[in-house]
Amino acid sequence: MSQATHEGTRSLLTINRWFVWKEMRQLSVLVIALLFAAVITLLFLAGAGSQSSWIHETPIVVLMFPILYALGAGTVLVGQEREHRTLHWLSTLPIPHHQLLGTKVGTATVGLIVMWFLAVCTLWLTGILEDESPWGLNARSNYHDLAPISYPLWMTHSLYVMLCGFFASWKFKNPFVAIVVVLPLSLIPIVIAELGLEFAQSNHYASFVHLVWILSSAISIPVMGLLAHRVAHKALSADKPPQIRVVSLKPRESETVLAQTTVFRWPMAAFIWQSIRSSAIPLAILATSTIVSMLAAVSWLTAKDMRYGEAKLVGWIMLLSLSISWLGVLVFKFDGSAARLRFVADRGVSPTKVFFARHGVPMAIIATMLVGYTIIITLRTDDQHFRILPSTLALALYVALFYSISQWVSQLTKMLTVALIVAPLASTLVINWWLNTVVNMESAWWMLGIFILLPMLATWRRMLPYMDMRGQIRTWIIAIGVALLIITLPVIPAVWKVSSFLSSHPNVTRNTLELLEAGNAVVKQSPRSIVLEMDNRDPLVGVFRETPELGARISAKNFGILFPELMLSRTEFLHSLRDAETPNEQAIEAYAKTIETASIIGHAARQSNRWFDQEAADRIEIWLVDALLSEEMQPYQQEPFFTAAVKRLVSSKARLKFRHDAVQESYSDTFRQDAWLNSRTSRFNQLLWETGHELPFGISVSRYSILFPIALKASTESPPADWLQQMHQGIFGDRPIENGPYGSRLRNQPAIMSVTSEILYPARYWGMEWEVDAETLRSSFGDSK
Amino acid sequence: MSSDHLNARPARCSLADLASLSIVGVPLSALALMGIWSMVSWWQQSLLLSASERTVVAEALSVDELAVTTWYDRRGSKQQTADLNRLVQAKTALIDEAYLLLPDSAKQLDEVLTFHNPSSSPLIEQVAARAKPVIAELQSLTKSGDRAWLPIVFQGTSTELTWAMHSDGLRQLTQIEFLDAYNKKESRRAIDALALMVRLFGPDNQPSFTADEWVRVSGYQNACNLVLDSLENPQWSLEELDEIQQLFSEPIDRQKHWQDIVRGNLLMAYPWTLNRNSWREGRYSGRMSGAKHQLSLMFLCLHHAAPSEARASAEIRAQMIATPGAGTQPHTTEIDRLSLGRADWSADQWIQFPISNDMYWQMMPQYFGGTAYRMLADANRQRWTRCAVAIKQFKEKNERYPQSLDELRSIGFPRDATLDFNGRPFRYRTFSGKAAELWNSSIVAPKEEYIKAGISANFVTIR
User: Fold this and answer.
1) Most CB atoms closer than 10 Å: which of A16, A469, A742, B315?
2) For A693-704, how does the pLDDT look when each residue is reduced to its tens digit (9 = 90+)?
């Protein structure tokens, strides 16, 4: 007896081991498909997304995959048995039902643990969740306050979802219906938590909702487990014997009518009818959800009060996308599709005909939705209300992409459940890729049309092998080719744009590297410059007077104080002349002091090794030259203050050298440091350092890498003929130069007309008439050497 | 089913065939027909748009950005530009000084620039003393007859706002000058300051874009407010009142302002509207550079506008330019009507990409309607100020307040100037001959049109 029992146990164990292996193989397809999708998604997030989207979206994406696995595991393990008609065979094996069920649930649970292990490892390796532990119940994503990223919560919930999957798969024969039923069932704990929040009116959203959620999931696990066990036991039990009925040989009248009217003479009509009959329930469900979700989304899009509506709107758009995607899946995955298509293939039916017949009904549903949408947006009459609605074309392209990708996935995958889970993911990825190529690579929007057409062409091309159930490898090779085309086609113009920009701006890369290298060096404080503090101006002016080689550094704020004072002083002097018959000694004295101060500060700023100070010196000299050459100054041309001021003007040659040296030095290291330090206060520095060119792939080219080399060349005795055009292009792009500060419209006017207390456009006053005037002054009244 | 049967096409279609094919054929055909219809409509509307462009907005199409800059520069003579620039820069020093003198309690300069505020008097006195040369130069410059312009760097569809900022600074400076003169009872100087304000923000001003006009209205209304507030004190002589009356009697050509600013918008924004490189605008200013902003701009701006909507946009603006009576209620009503109008429905809108133009149409009322209401409020305040001054004149002449506004005709005051924005006489009452009260509207309760006109309920007491 004991020996017999032992043998029996061994035998069962052997069978069970084989059975476990079989279950694992079935599940492996789902696991591999999900892992593949996860890797692609993460690569996309890491490569194409921004740093922010990587940090905020990755945790949600990673946590999504164990849930998707839980959603599909039951359907895969049970649904496939139904599809292959091995369920009854299983029930005839000498394995107790509870062991059979336990093995399936156990294997699925091991798979879930593996998925969770991989998810946790991924998040741990990326180090994204360093700031907040996801093991706490209240952990929420930074991406959205309401998005929980708590491991215990999602782990418990995923176990519950997996049992829901088993329950629905045992209960419903149609795997599609089973998946559809799992969706609302899996939401029950969340709905309970939200209703609880409404009832309790708690102010602590996360702590309350997450607690109720996890408790509901935990309580629901044994309940769902029992229910699943019960329906599974029923499904595995012997079917009731069919009741013996006495059937009349004479057909009923209705059957006769039906038989007469459903005679198809057109094969295409027969195929369409067959495609409807073979998946009537899924088509009915998806047609309803497509239309309803479109209507609901439109009602939210046009809602007068959109408060609290965004989440619902997103929900309806997601349901619409899911419905379209599953309509695509149904093209090649329906009840017994493979066998039915093989049947028509064996009879030599044109694969094109079958292709169009299979697409007919889903496309008709989508067309109905689009026609309905168009009618709604056309008939809307409330013109006062603000809304943004996609055009029919935009919506059509969006749904066409979801449909095209999904039907492609449907042809590539063998299992309905895998297709149902992977197709929406793949479609979302492709549409995100398209958006990414438009935003980051300046790709053309019509590239979406190519994204839609390519998968459709691929499935049409592989229709015959699919119907014959052969040529899998070639199908996959073509699929990889299509995927590569989708990935590479939009990249090619972007690569061309970047390479053509870099070839036309050879300095950009080299200079950037040089500056980066220099930026790492220690800040070198120039020994020949001191900061001009306005509170301590008079003593400092004295120092500058005594030490002519000392440079002055002027901040943008201080220049903004100094320059209006110069203008005010001149106005005061002019006013004193206008009113008085004889010159007012006091006014002359005050104005002479202003001229002396301006000439000293201007001279000192000119000695500075910083570009900004050279710009300040330009503007002070413009004021000085205009003041000294003015009519009202003629009686004072021999006064010491006048000649001293003229002597402080540097020669044109020296001015060029000062500018060149300052640009060079700012360019190499000092300016870099100062630019960052002053970036908040000086618009000049901001303008130089902000992005001037944004190329595809997120490549930003700061203006400095273009403007510095131009300024270096412009500050020589023989500047390039087109340096003004280059400066303009570097700042304003392709706008007309005449509208900008480098155009002749402003440069042909005296500089004093446009000079202001704000220093903004670099090198704006270089090479203008005032420099000639300065030289004339020097030669007439000063030391021209 | 044999393979021949499956592949062959029999001659006769059964009812079942028809039913089965209809399920697929009807929706797909409907969508296809709609697509064809929309494309035909696009083509037809494009032809209409071209015709419309040739007739309605020919100028907009012939004009490029260069021409618009030149047009902006035509604001005035460049001979005085250097002087204006010097004064504008000098003004900055004075306003900066005024901010340094602000009492701790005040955050804004305007908070202390009021009548008889003991805490602000030293500030006003000190800044006004320093501002004397600048004010005098400004007086001289604005009286010269030449118009100065600021050679600003032109940015896209509007001026750089530099002029707006400087204008506000000039407004503050002239206000300081007026208050100082008024506080010191130097009536001549005060009236000169008012005259300067009127020259800067009144009939001589040439706004080119909506923002300029908003600043002009703000400056002019400020001058009106100063006069209205000064009427509480018996400072002005009859002659001075007459002079003030004359200052605010000068008609402001609001219709020309209106035509200029809408034309400016049409010239600049319309080609942009038609998507002749719609995001070039952002790239120019450097704030929205690069491709990353393209998507947001696609959703925010008229990108690939349907021809019917582009045409409506241009035609509505052209109608706005032609709408007469800027500064009157019928004008605002008409602009409201036009602003709220939109393209007649056309199937070409189905295939514009990516979204409908609702956001654009939503902006129209604020943009143009808002300006029309500002002009109406400006015209209303001008008449209100004149009317209040006339009551004061009547009182000085007759030693009593008029019984009604009709009585003002006896001193030669036109009836038109006693009418408010909606064409009815301002609300007026006297208090036992000791004071009079003039409201800025005939409407007692804040009714809809009162609110719509952008006029807050207010009155002035005349003693």
Assistant:
1) A742
2) 767 666 667 777
